[in-house]
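anyone else get weird line breaks when pasting these?? whatever heres mine. first is seq + tokens for prot A
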Amino acid sequence: MEDNMNTLFNFLSNIAETKLIIIGGIALLTLIPIVLLLKPVIIDVIQIIKHLLDKKNKK
């Protein structure tokens, strides 16, 4: 009986790992295009932050 529980536990943990890998892959496939589309916006935001930090350091 204990062997059956062990086998069942291993099977369920493998399913959880597989789901995690699939969800991670989907997340990467959705995040990469979003980052590529928002790259110009991110560059502008970084420049604004640098400008504000330089302005603050000059005072």
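and prot B, same format (seq, then tokens)
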Amino acid sequence: MEVNPLLEQFADHIARIEEALERELDLYSWSEFHAPLRYACDGGKRIRPLILVLSVECINSKRPGSDAYLAASAIELLHTESIIHDDIIDDENQRRGKPSFHVKYGYNSSILTADFVLGVILNIGSKLKDTRVISELSNAATRMSEGEMMEIRLNKSPEISEDDYIKVLEYKTASLFETSAKLGAIIGGGSEDQIRAMTSFGNLLGIAYQIH
């Protein structure tokens, strides 16, 4: 995977995220979904899982442990699931410099693969010590879907207010940034105030990322 020059300083973290993701995917080497999943995950910048790991570092001076990278792999998989669906809805033919998932594998396989990914995420969540992790991943998935539905509805509207636009961004895109930062604070052992602060940071970062 090619690393964005802006992210080179975090190459070690990204490499460990990749290792965690590879380990999880290899658990399904027997599955019909293994090759499609690897295709879907290949080429991502890993920004969202990196936010989780860096948030752990912000809260806790100790080096992030295995739980941080495992949770980060779940974040990347949730992002992967969302872009499979997003590319179908938006009729995008290219993603990460190659044919979109549905172009390569077809619509039926795309829907089933995205469903399978959610099962993989649940399995990862069950391995993590803090039960809040799986709850937050579930909330993120729900909000991202809600944001997609909002966008579909608003695309048919003759007028879209600024508030509507920001709300779509908050749900569809910022939700996963927010969850990444929040989970980093949780896994890092942050106080309630620290968790709230990182949650707010993730939300604002996600909105800024999408607007940019």
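btw re prot B: The chain has a mean pLDDT of 93. The domain at 5-211 is CATH 1.10.600.10 (Farnesyl Diphosphate Synthase).
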